[in-house]
Specification:
single chain; about 90 residues; mainly alpha; Arc Repressor Mutant, subunit A; three-stranded antiparallel sheet; 4 helices; about 60% helix; elongated
Length: about 90
């Protein structure tokens, strides 16, 4: 599964789906006041990253998958910012 940086629209889509449950692209677009084509583009990225699942014409998100992705991102961030050898000495 690839990592995906969350932009504002993708974050709004995930929150919308967590709050409202499975929804169509048009429902998400109406709820977020965005065009369905813009929403579909973001849904494709979220789907490729494994955050959003599609069943028929509806899209859904799993809270557990969101938590796993968030934890994986946080671990990567922590490892990059705070390498295992500890913080670099200040000069």
């Amino acid at each position: 599964m690839s990592n995906i940086l969350m932009n504002r629209t993708r974050s709004q889509i995930v929150r919308f789906l967590l709050k409202n449950g499975p929804s169509t692209c048009s429902e998400i677009g109406a709820g977020l006041k965005a065009s369905p084509s813009s929403i579909r583009r973001q849904l494709n990225l979220l789907g490729n990253a494994g955050l959003v699942q599609r069943a028929s014409s509806q899209f859904a998100v799993s809270p557990e998958q969101v938590h796993r992705q968030t934890d994986a991102f946080a671990a990567t961030f922590h490892f990059t910012v705070m390498p295992p050898d500890g913080p670099a000495p200040m000069s």
